[in-house]
Design brief:
Elements lengths: L6 E5 L4 H12 L4 E5 L9 H11 L3 E4 L7 H6 L1 H21 L4 E5 L28 H21 L3 E6 L1 E3 L12 H15 L3 E5 L5 E2 L1 E3 H14 L6 E3 L5 E2 H12 L4 E5 L14 H7 L7 H15 L6
Parallel strand pairs: 1-2, 1-3, 3-4, 4-5, 5-10, 6-9, 7-12
Antiparallel strand pairs: 8-11
Helix pairs in contact: 1-7, 2-4, 4-5, 6-8, 6-10, 8-10
Family: Belongs to the NAD(P)-dependent epimerase/dehydratase family. Fucose synthase subfamily.
Pathway: Nucleotide-sugar biosynthesis; GDP-L-fucose biosynthesis via de novo pathway; GDP-L-fucose from GDP-alpha-D-mannose: step 2/2
InterPro entries: Epimerase_deHydtase, GDP_fucose/colitose_synth, NAD(P)-bd_dom_sf
Length: about 325
């Protein structure tokens, strides 16, 4: 009950994951929730970070503000993805320490794993190589939060934890072709093709790569449970422990959207990391998290949400 009275600040709280984290905290009975979003605070600027801590006076910070995107965006803006994520993370955690924040929850990424990590990905393999090239700048920038977390715990006794969600999807995702990840991109392509009478859609790569996907509401639940129950220094995978090839994912989304046209694979474009699937046993052991949403049901909910909001989305 004492924890539920703490002042909790979610950076990026109006974003895809952040908005679901705030909703989930509310469902768990938390009373003092605050959103720090880009329209009020540019977290690349120390002056805005200082103002955020002065205004909100948080006891707990959930840092999920990030510059994110799919393979195309990562290839187009590697410098921005590196700088924006690195500078935000370093300064938001540093000023949290200076401001007397009691607990810092850093949201990392599985893009930090080496390109050829053995499947399933285990946390102890995190430092055994360089990340997949197309998202290495982003993955390494976010990985520095883990280094900072360890260093601050050692020198200052600062309580920070580091969570690594797998690829997220769900209602509220980004469907802008410039920045979207694979699931919203495929949903949009299929529904656009149906709406405009197109009989072909183009998909990047060969379809042979695999990915693991986590419904965003499940991820938000994991963040809340970790905030309540986990105080360790080790990074923790957040996922389902299940993988699907991109080729099979395309067929599933075609079926669920009703698209019956053809698929053309643009093999001049990269597949990205060959495989992604996590060992999620530590999350279950450390704070009792196990994903609950069936993948097909999650996709149906995502497609339904996007159908209702298509007029509001880009394109």
């Amino acid at each position: 009950m004492l924890l539920k009275q703490k002042r909790i600040c979610v950076t990026g709280g109006r974003g895809f994951l952040g908005s679901h984290i705030i909703t989930t905290f509310k469902c768990h009975g938390y009373a003092h929730l605050f959103c720090a979003d880009v329209d009020e605070y540019d977290l690349r600027l120390p002056v805005d970070i200082k103002r955020m801590y002065h205004d909100i006076k948080p006891d707990i910070v959930i840092h999920c503000a990030a510059r994110v995107g799919g393979i195309g965006a990562n290839r187009k803006y590697p410098g921005e993805f590196f700088y924006d994520n690195l500078i935000m993370g370093v300064n938001v955690m540093e000023y949290a320490r200076r401001s007397g924040v009691e607990k810092f929850v850093a949201i990392g990424t599985i893009c930090s794993y080496p390109k050829h990590t053995p499947v399933p990905f285990r946390e102890e393999n995190l430092w055994n190589g360089y990340p997949e090239e197309t998202n290495a700048p982003y993955g390494l920038a976010k990985k520095m939060l883990l280094v900072q977390s360890h260093a601050y715990r050692q020198q200052y006794g600062f309580d920070s934890i580091y969570l690594m969600p797998v690829n997220l999807y769900g209602p509220g995702d980004k469907f802008d072709p410039e920045t979207s990840h694979v699931i919203p991109a495929l949903i949009k392509k299929c529904l656009d093709a149906i709406e405009y009478g197109q009989h072909e859609i183009v998909v990047w790569g060969t379809g042979s790569a695999s990915r693991e996907f986590l419904y965003v509401e499940d991820c938000a639940e994991a963040v809340v449970l970790a905030t309540e129950r986990y105080n360790g220094s080790s990074p923790i995978n957040i996922g389902t422990g299940l993988e699907i090839t991109i080729r099979d994912l395309v067929q599933l989304i075609m079926s669920l959207t009703g698209y019956t046209g053809t698929i053309t694979w643009d093999t001049s474009k990269p597949d990205g990391q060959p495989r992604r699937m996590l060992d999620t046993s530590k999350a279950e052991k450390a704070f009792g998290f196990k994903a609950q949403t069936d993948f097909k049901i999650g996709l149906e909910k995502t497609i339904s949400w996007y159908r209702e909001h298509r007029t509001e989305r880009i394109g």
